[in-house]
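Hi support team,

I submitted a single chain yesterday and got back a structure, but I'm not sure I'm reading the token output correctly. Could someone confirm the output below corresponds to the sequence I sent? I've pasted both exactly as they appear in my results page.

Thanks,
R.
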Amino acid sequence: MEILKEYLGKWNIKLSAAQEEQFERYYELLVRKNEVMNLTAITEKAEVEVKHFLDSLALTQAVPLTGEETVIDIGTGAGFPGIPLKILFPKMKIVLADALQKRVGFLNEVITDLMLTDICAIHARAEELGHDGQYRERFDLCVSRAVAELPQLSEYCLPLVKPGGLFIPYKSRKTDEEIEDASGAIRELGAECEGIKQLFIGPDKLERSLILLRKTAPTPDKYPRSAGKIKKKPLC
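Hi R., thanks for writing in. Yes, this is the structure output for that exact sequence:
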């Protein structure tokens, strides 16, 4: 994990020997499972260190973290950004949510193998979680690297954030125009844009923009709508 350690060092973050071992083991599990199921197109170690691990931890450069937040990761896939955040912040309480049962099975293997606690992987769709009292408006942070337009992603994710908390989508390009287009949807869902943190990550300067959407009021009960309605008629 030399690349990961080098660039975390530039952020004044130092991994313990145990954390280094967890990242190494996570990489091994990811590559092995990827041989039998499609988890990621990125498998070369240096690329995984930057495009998955370091990128996931870009959150540390966007907002001050206590390391004890409650976090839900929507559309987590192979566990990004949730598992790298959990390795770095062992006291975080994290829910990994994904709509594909096979991926959830892999995540549970990782959680067990790395002996992570206060983290769980659930097979669920965000539009269902948003109406479940166990999850609705329960989290300090919601994060997502899922590929979706901001109005749609906001409707899936903001209902899960408690008032005062943040939804932080990871975007791969400049986002000013996208935020402007989604401004009405963000207000309707009870939030406001607090800013954008743009980073250039790793030796190849991977561009990453993290949008900070602060929950200022409870989300109206009717949201999120069904996935079909969200896709057919996005909020604007």
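A quick pointer for reading it: The chain has one domain: 2-232. Let us know if anything else looks off.

Best,
Support desk
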